[in-house]
Task: inverse folding
């Protein structure tokens, strides 16, 4: 299919439709409302379920219901709305039904503002809700990648019976870029064998996250943890640029990673041996590759649109072997390449002289 | 040649409905949750819909409702059962979907969700068990607790100056255009139980006919937290609850009447 | 003989007494000598005069679905006559 000029939010929505989403339940919140509006137009056209719910709270619980019936279901929101949904995320993860959530992050905390940020990193990667689990979290850095990762999100959700986030930020949601949408996938015709479809000619099925017997709940948790280990083993994703001989590696995801790319190119142009490492899966964090990089680089510089959240994961992956520095903007401020270049140059100048 | 004669045969006149599992429940002795469950199960049997029904359990004493019905079931977060039911029904329009909720679930934390399923005219059925108290957590005040009623969080009696007045949910929900059938019945004696069953039957028939949202509020007892014996608790419903929560229909949309009259 | 009779499941009866109150014939009483595993004293049918009519009001009133109700019902049945 040909590339067309697409707005991020619209691309996210249409990609979900092409992926075969059967139900969308959402609530308006800037800067992702266009996603809901696109769904409002397209889902009824296609005879699929759409509701603008009374709140984000209701939205995620409608997703939970549809997911229990075995249908591909999703919602989308932005930071304050994601906070509201946390109870629902925990129930979904605890009862192991698949669901996809798009978070278009904005400045916070609290009501904050509507400009782009990456300050939900802790929230979505740690568990996005109470209890021991991590959703799978995917972070695109372009409209095309957003489309591709939404398609992947539904497949991963079904494969692992798990909650999958696609996190963008307000800039990605609002920008327009040429991108290609995939052809429409046919909707699933069969419901999975665990789904609630009516106990016809079979024993009833129950989907619950409640288990009052502690040993039994520990078993549930063990099963969840085993699933997470499998996801960590197989689903780490990242992109690298100019990494082979880099002494300083800039680590950034999403929009921050993309802006850092320009700064990295500029630094290379000035003769600095720097590279870019861009996590695409925020959970599972691509620590396998990053810890191997730690063996041979002299330092990492983490760039984020927050006060330092992925920074912790980079430090953990680096294992104390090399210094990990940080450059960030908060409150909805978006860094320009020049600021990141300055941070790179300053840090590079401090690197110890290499023995040849 | 064959002659017909009259013989006397012993027949089963009443037995456990197939939609209700043969397991003991955790409800207190005399708790009318058991009656409400049984009536729903009888209706599902009579309408022949057991095998396509999905029930959504609340948080409250009936949190384990999914263990007691012989149907597919799921557990909603507190107050969110109507939203979960909405998601289920929208992707499975041929399923019969119901929520079963208590007064905390429906009238406190879940007020938005119940109002909006009714406003949307969602084709689901809600059974609302009103016992004027929070049972599961040990007897605190509910939005349905009566003025002067003593509970663990209104130990000197509900003070309307501080806590306001109880909410009449059947009236509130019935006022919404998308609600097709909303009624309040009681479980305090056999006559009322039989009327309650008719109401529950009508509520499910409304769903089967695709006519919109139906809710049956059931005045119910909580002997343990009211500090009364089971028979005294039923009497308390009649003497104290019914005057504040009048029995009868609060919404009967066009066509629902005819539905109620047919078998 | 009595027109009706009931069987009460003594394992699930919680001794709530609502059946006793519902019964119009006063033929249900609470036992005092055999608590269930949960410590409840179950209800039981005591009907020496055969007054139970199988009306099932007790079953309607019972929250634990413990009661099965039987009734003697006249039924038109075929009886083959001896062949001619």
Result:
């Amino acid at each position: 299919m040909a590339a067309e000029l697409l707005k991020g939010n619209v691309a996210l929505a249409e990609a979900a439709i092409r992926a075969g989403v059967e139900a969308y339940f959402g609530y308006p919140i800037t800067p992702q409302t266009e996603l809901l509006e696109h769904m409002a137009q397209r889902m009824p056209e296609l005879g699929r379920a759409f509701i603008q719910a009374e709140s984000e709270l209701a939205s995620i619980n409608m997703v939970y219901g549809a997911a229990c019936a075995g249908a591909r279901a999703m919602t989308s929101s932005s930071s304050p709305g994601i906070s509201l949904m946390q109870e629902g995320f925990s129930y979904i993860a605890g009862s192991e039904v698949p669901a996809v959530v798009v978070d278009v992050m904005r400045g916070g905390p609290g009501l904050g503002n509507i400009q782009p940020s990456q300050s939900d990193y802790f929230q979505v990667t740690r568990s996005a809700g109470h209890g021991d689990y991590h959703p799978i979290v995917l972070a695109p850095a372009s409209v095309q990648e957003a489309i591709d990762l939404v398609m992947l999100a539904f497949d991963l959700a079904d494969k692992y019976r798990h909650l999958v986030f696609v996190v963008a930020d307000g800039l990605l949601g609002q920008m327009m870029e040429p991108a290609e949408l995939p052809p429409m996938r046919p909707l699933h015709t069969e419901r999975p064998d665990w789904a609630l479809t009516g106990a016809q000619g079979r024993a009833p099925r129950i989907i619950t996250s409640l288990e009052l017997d502690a040993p039994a709940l520990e078993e549930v948790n063990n099963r969840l943890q085993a699933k997470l280990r499998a996801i960590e083993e197989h689903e780490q994703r990242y992109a690298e640029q100019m990494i082979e001989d880099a002494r300083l590696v800039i680590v950034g995801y999403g929009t921050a990673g993309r802006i850092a790319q320009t700064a990295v190119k500029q630094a290379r142009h000035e003769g600095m041996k720097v590279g870019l490492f861009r996590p695409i899966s925020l959970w599972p964090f691509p620590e396998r590759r990053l810890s191997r990089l730690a063996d041979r680089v002299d330092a990492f510089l983490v760039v984020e649109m927050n006060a330092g959240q992925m920074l912790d994961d980079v430090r953990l992956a680096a294992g104390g072997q090399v210094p990990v520095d940080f450059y960030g903007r908060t409150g909805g401020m978006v860094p320009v390449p020049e600021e990141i270049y300055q941070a790179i140059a300053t840090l590079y100048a401090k690197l110890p002289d290499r023995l040849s | 040649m064959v002659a017909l004669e009259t013989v006397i045969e012993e027949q089963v006149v009443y037995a456990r409905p197939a939609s209700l599992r043969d397991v003991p429940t955790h409800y207190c002795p005399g708790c009318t949750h058991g009656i409400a469950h049984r009536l729903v199960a009888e209706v599902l049997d009579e309408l022949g819909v057991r095998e396509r029904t999905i029930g959504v359990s609340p948080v409250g004493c009936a949190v384990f409702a999914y263990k007691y019905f012989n149907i597919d079931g799921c557990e909603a977060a507190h107050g969110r059962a109507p939203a979960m039911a909405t998601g289920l029904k929208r992707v499975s329009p041929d399923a019969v979907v119901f929520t079963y909720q208590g007064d905390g679930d429906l009238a406190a934390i879940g007020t938005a969700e119940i109002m909006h399923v009714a406003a949307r005219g969602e084709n689901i059925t809600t059974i609302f068990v009103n016992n004027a108290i929070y049972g599961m957590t040990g007897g605190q005040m509910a939005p349905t607790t009566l003025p002067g009623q003593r509970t663990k969080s209104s130990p000197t009696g509900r003070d309307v100056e501080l806590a306001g007045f109880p909410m009449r949910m059947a009236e509130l929900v019935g006022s919404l255009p998308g609600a097709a059938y909303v009624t309040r019945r009681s479980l305090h004696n056999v006559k009322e139980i039989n009327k309650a069953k008719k109401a529950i039957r009508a509520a499910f028939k409304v769903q089967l006919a695709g006519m919109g949202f139906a809710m049956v509020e059931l005045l119910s007892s909580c002997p343990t937290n009211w500090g009364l014996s089971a028979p005294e608790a039923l009497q308390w419903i009649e003497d104290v609850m019914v005057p504040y929560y009048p029995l009868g229909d609060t919404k009967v949309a066009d066509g629902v009447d005819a539905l109620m009259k047919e078998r | 003989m009595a027109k009706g009779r009931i069987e009460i499941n003594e394992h699930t009866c919680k001794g709530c007494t609502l059946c006793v109150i519902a019964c119009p014939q006063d033929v249900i009483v609470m036992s005092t000598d055999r608590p269930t595993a949960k410590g409840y004293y179950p209800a039981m049918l005591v009907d020496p005069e055969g007054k139970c009519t199988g009306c099932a009001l007790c079953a309607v009133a019972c929250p634990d679905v413990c009661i099965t109700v039987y009734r003697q019902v006249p039924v038109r049945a075929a009886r083959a006559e001896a062949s001619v």
